[in-house]
Design a protein that fits this description.
Number of strands: 5
Order of helices and strands: HHHHEHEHEHEHHE
Helix content: 40-55%
Shape: elongated
Mean pLDDT: 81
Distance between the termini: 122 Å
């Protein structure tokens, strides 16, 4: 009996040891699982943090690039403003624009169209870009003391004395309202958001104009259609000093550049390559 009891006791002790060992192993496995879970969570958080940091970095980089571009546009704007008070300065501004916006044009072809001071008329203005300063600026250009009077019976239909070219329809509307202070005649609206081209053609072909305001693309289309005529004593004013919220002017807008370049190289500058007697009846340009 004592032998049996001794063996039973040993068996019980072995079972207890085995049970404790299995419990420790299970606890170890549980701990390992918790550690793995924590590591996975930390790794996920770390990955999310990296992605978040990258997004923040991209946003900061994009914002900084915009600030840098705006600063460059502002520096260029200030340089241009100083140059706009002379005909030679206007010619240099326009030449820089053509060098950038006529990549397909050959060097010899472009050089034949190089602007000179003879292309421009100049009026002093201390507040360029301000729409309220445009009326007095235009009167100085045209040599008018009071209002712009009727174009006259001998003037062809669709040939304004004054054409203001702007970078957007909204800017056209603002400047057109401003010009109403110097003429009681109807000012032609030559931009796409107001009237269809057929309506504008009919308007131009039935009226002797004093003034018109338009965007480069629509002006080019109407000139090529023969409805808008740029000759005689017309002055084409480029609204080059007004800046948008990104500090860009008419000369900096990528979507406007090709149309403005075409207006200049096809319809304005070639007129000035003719002989001196013909140039007297050709339009001039000015920068506001």
């Amino acid at each position: 009996f004592s032998f049996f009891f001794s063996n039973h006791k040993q068996t019980m002790e072995l079972e207890q040891k085995r049970s404790k060992t299995m419990q420790k192993e299970e606890e170890a496995v549980a701990v390992d699982a918790e550690v793995s879970t924590l590591e996975a969570v930390n790794e996920g958080n770390s990955s999310d943090n990296i992605k978040g940091n990258k997004k923040k970095s991209k946003k900061k980089s994009g914002a900084q690039q915009k600030k840098n571009k705006a600063a460059l546009y502002q520096l260029l704007h200030e340089k241009r403003i100083d140059m706009m008070n002379t005909a030679d300065g206007n010619a240099k501004i326009l030449w820089d624009f053509l060098l950038t916006n006529t990549p397909a044009m050959g060097v010899d072809e472009r050089n034949k169209l190089k602007p000179t001071e003879d292309h421009f008329v100049v009026a002093q203005c201390s507040d360029r870009g301000n729409k309220d300063a445009l009326p007095s600026f235009c009167k100085s250009l045209l040599g008018v003391d009071k209002q712009l009077v009727n174009a006259g019976k001998k003037r062809p239909h669709g040939a304004p004395k004054l054409l203001v070219v702007c970078g957007s329809a909204l800017r056209c509307i603002a400047l057109r309202e401003s010009l109403k202070s110097i003429t009681d005649k109807q000012i032609a609206k030559l931009f796409s958001k107001h009237m269809k081209m057929d309506q504008q053609k009919a308007f131009l072909e039935s009226r002797r104009l004093v003034a018109a305001v338009g965007t480069p693309a629509r002006v080019v289309s109407l000139v090529e259609a023969g409805s808008l005529k740029l000759h005689k004593d017309c002055v084409v004013v480029l609204d080059a000093s007004f800046q948008d919220d990104k500090k860009r002017s008419l000369l900096d807008l990528n979507d406007i550049g090709p149309a403005l370049a075409k207006l200049l190289t096809t319809h304005l500058l070639p007129q000035q390559q003719e002989d001196e007697s013909a140039r007297k009846d050709r339009c001039k340009m000015a920068m506001f």
